[in-house]
Specification:
Length: about 270
Amino acid sequence: MNDTATSGTSGTTGTTGTTGTTGTTPVIDILGLHKWFGDTHVLRGVDLQVMPSDVVVLIGASGSGKSTLLRCVNRLETHDEGEIRISGEPVRGDERYINALRARVGMVFQHFHLFPHMTALGNVMEGPTQVRGMPAAQATDMALGLLDRVGLADKADAYPATLSGGQKQRVAIARALAMQPDVMLFDEPTSALDPELVGEVLAVMRGLAGEGTTMMVVTHEMGFAREVADMVAYMDEGAIVEMGPPAQIFDEPAMERTRRFLGQIL
């Protein structure tokens, strides 16, 4: 394949997917990232920046490296070469740092991973009280506010088994927000939901984007990517093939691989 990575010209620099204003420190700065699983080269020299308040959406076929890239950002996976910086600070491997990192980098997964023995309120309070040492009364007030923010104020005392998939995912988003992270990572947050429940989760994410939450999102929801993203990165075979504003990627993609992928799904 002869395609080489390219990025859009609006708010971007060169071929690395740089976005934002000159002089501003990226919230996420990924430099020459490589990752192998055994003999499989999963990430191949990825360069990517996410600036404050930006929404960067990663698209591409399953197995293209999108979720692995996301998991490397908060050290759920360790990269083999290259560097990741969060707000200018290199990500490293010691346990104390990783715990602090995951408080700053919230992550929402395909599956909800809620504590089944805790109410929605208890799930959202757990991080602030146990990790940040927040007093229970303060954590309760914050958690109730976050549940209201995701449209679940009336479900504070409900246990996960009584919630729909969309409601569980919204509790998971509230739980991640409770740590007051610098950036939110979303790894295909709607892929495990029934189609009729997808919209309620995407609505919460649209709201977060509108509030200026810095987000890095892996999704197959192309309508969401077109509407909400500041930048869209198309990944294939472990590399960013093309990156640019949604209008460029969806309407005037420069690379044949991008055109072929979009032609298959749109």
